[in-house]
Amino acid sequence: MIVSQDTAVKIAEHLLQIKAIKLQPHKPFVWASGWKAPIYCDNRRTLSYPKIRNYLRDQFIKVIHEKMGKPDIICGVATGGIAHGMMIADAMNLPFCYVRAEAKVHGLTNLIEGVVGAGQKVVIVEDLISTGKSSLKAVTSLRNAGCIVQGMISIFTYNFKISADAFKKEKCPVYHLCDYETLTKEALKKEVITKADVALLKSWREAPEKWGQDGKEPVRPMSGGMK
After folding, report:
1. Does residue 46 have a cis bond before it (omega within 30 degrees)?
2. Residue 125's pLDDT is what?
3. CA distances from 81 to 47, 96, 179, 205, 227 (A)
């Protein structure tokens, strides 16, 4: 869930302004999973804009205070959550760690980088949540280390049902600063997309794994079909 609609709108404006999110309904991107998508999100771009990255940091901290209480440690999910997580930990004067996607195959073969201990309360920071699969791997890794995961916060989510169901199953609270619905509304308002494009964006969100897999380019719907 997004915590504040006002915050979500402001972040959507920022992400569109700096092109951290690109919308191409008629020229889809191909994700690593093989899914075709009319959207690409690169929240690392926010790091190049001090005012925006600091605003995100402050909103993260606000959510932590309001929803989770003070943790013992902040953890970033590699790689997108590392920089923002470190900024949060620094501002809150807390220890920091991060979780790799896979354990190193050399050296100490660490999966968790940094010092964590059993019984420590941890808040996990992500830049983006899609299916939730990689994010929840971090939750499992920390729980296996004996940590108490208070929850996860992300900059942006696509609000896939598969993700919501997965977090619910793992009993891990998850909060987002901005989401797909808010982003598309702001993109339409700022004329980044048209009303006709919204139908394509909506159809993708409802069945992303099937969208565009017939080999045909998405067809722009008639604007009169919008409701």
Report:
1. no
2. 98
3. 11, 11, 17, 23, 37
CATH label of the domain that carries residue 209: 3.40.50.2020
pLDDT of residue 1: 77
Q: What does pTM read for this prediction?
A: 0.90
CA distance 23 to 41: 9
Could you tell me which residues come within 8 angstroms of residue 130 by beta carbon, excluding any fewer than 6 positions away? 157, 158, 160, 163
- The boundaries of the domain holding residue 45 are 5-225
Which pLDDT score is estimated for 53?
A: 98
Number of folded domains that form the chain: 1
Low-confidence residues in the chain, pLDDT < 50 = 216-227
Q: What is the pLDDT of residue 226?
A: 28
pLDDT tens, position by position, 147-189: 999 999 999 999 999 999 999 999 999 999 999 999 999 999 9
Return contacts of 64-70, CB within 8 angstroms, 24+ apart: 64/88, 64/92, 64/123, 64/153, 66/3, 67/3, 67/151, 67/173, 67/175, 68/123, 68/150, 68/151, 68/173, 69/121, 69/150, 70/94
CA pair distance 178, 152, nearest whole angstrom: 14
Q: What distance in Å separates the CA atoms of residue 122 and residue 76, rounded to the nearest whole number?
A: 10
Q: Distance between CA atoms of 132 and 153, rounded to whole angstroms?
A: 12
Contact call for residues 124 and 153 (beta carbons, < 8 A): yes
Q: Could you tell me the two tokens for 110? A: 């660490």
